[in-house]
Amino acid sequence: MDKELYTRWDDKKNLITTRLSGLITETEVKQWKEELEKTFTELPQGTKFKIFVNLHGFSPASMSTHKMYREIIPLLLSKYNWRIGYLDLFDEAKDLKLTSENGMECLAAVHCHHDSYKINEYEKKFGKDSEHFWDDPEKSAAWIESYSISAN
Length: 152
Prior knowledge:
Layout: E1 4-10, E2 15-24, H1 26-41, E3 48-54, E4 58-60, H2 63-70, H3 72-78, E5 105-112, H4 116-126, E6 131-134, H5 137-146
Parallel strand pairs: 2-3, 2-4, 3-5, 5-6
Antiparallel strand pairs: 1-2
């Protein structure tokens, strides 16, 4: 599978799409994280946004790579008043503080992963009106793009 590592901001949809797929090393996770963080620093103050975290096809090259990537999105989104549902699985996340950096706020999220069993369990346990966990990138993209944040 080809590698894909990117983060894009679509100001017309108020949507951040971040993608990590293929066999990925620690160095590549660092590059992805830097691009992700840079995207957030470039958003206008007070931005309300939604995010599509597309990890469909992501395969960490090592256990240390896996450990490195898995805390990036939860910690990043906590700076924008968002707590990912599955964090309730981890004791170490119970005290995670939510803040609103630069008045910015995440209002919806979709997480896509190819491990159907795991992601479907997450959806059953943690899915809600503003957050979903799916194994289908097209379904994920369609939902997050159609989710209206203007009413929030």
